[in-house]
Write a structure and sequence with these properties.
The chain is an alpha+beta fold. It is built from 3 helices and 12 strands.
């Protein structure tokens, strides 16, 4: 039986910057596949604005990395858009280009690993969440600028911060290009007027493909 705490986390709609947007009716995903054991897997994010390559850090953020890779392995992110674009951060992991929310069949919140020593600096990839520190599921953001205000301070609701689980190794110029596009408010976030979509997100092999 689902615990009361887990049910509360799933149903929470309260937002915290850069928190998750509330879910609405979307496509139901298949069960997410299990992750592997590579300590520094590389994920390629092919967007309509260019290619972003991210190296993940399973040693420092094992729960966040495994969670992220399960979504990647299931093709969950393919076709989703960046629904929040600001000068300091870009966020994705929920909406398609036509603003339909996508959900996974077995999406459960992960423990906040923001106390792992990794910082929200330019190029760092981190888990987005609601006001509850331990509520991250599919949404993530990439820091375009240094964001020390998102870093872990203490184990309190206001002090947990946002868990960094990797960093961009290629495509910082793509982050800058995304933040330069015209935006307008959609719900509580500024979103690109012309959607920027993740066309394909996948784990790169050691040969670089």
């Amino acid at each position: 039986m689902m615990s009361g705490r887990l049910l509360t986390l799933i149903l929470m709609a309260a937002l915290a910057a850069p928190g998750c947007a509330p879910s609405d009716d979307g496509d139901s995903g298949a069960e997410l596949p299990a992750a592997g054991t590579d300590m520094t897997p590389t994920v390629v994010i092919e967007t309509t604005q260019g290619r972003i390559v991210v190296e993940l850090n399973r040693e420092r953020a094992p729960e966040s990395v495994d969670n992220f890779l399960r979504y990647v392995g299931g093709g969950f992110y393919d076709g989703l858009s960046f629904h929040r674009v600001q000068p300091n951060v870009i966020q994705t992991g929920l909406y398609t280009a036509d603003r339909r929310a996508r959900s996974a069949a077995d999406a459960f919140p992960v423990i906040n690993e923001a106390d792992n020593g990794l910082k929200n600096v330019r190029g760092a990839i981190a888990m987005a969440r609601t006001a509850d520190p331990h509520s991250a599921t599919s949404q993530f953001f990439i820091n375009v600028l240094d964001n020390p205000g998102y870093d872990f301070k203490e184990k309190t609701v206001s002090g947990w911060g946002y868990a960094v689980f990797g960093h961009v190794t290629e495509g910082l110029d793509v982050l800058d290009a995304i933040t330069a596009v015209p935006t307008r408010m959609q719900g509580t976030f500024p979103a690109p007027i012309d959607p920027i979509v993740m066309e394909r997100v996948y784990v790169a092999d050691r040969g670089g493909n």
